[in-house]
Amino acid sequence: MALLDGVDRIILEVARALLPLLAFFLVFQFFYLKLPRVYVVNLARGILFAFLGMVLFLQGVNVAFLPAGREIGEGLVAFDQRWLLIPLGFFLGFLATYAEPAVRILCYQVEESSGGSIGDSLILYSLSLGVAVSVAFGMARLVYGIPLLYFLIPGYLLALILLRFSDGGFVGIAFDSGGVATGPMAVTFLLSLAVGVAAGIEGRNPVVDGFGLIALIALAPILSVLMLGILYRRTRGEDS
Question: Which residue range forms the structural domain that includes residue 71?
Answer without folding.
Answer: 1-76
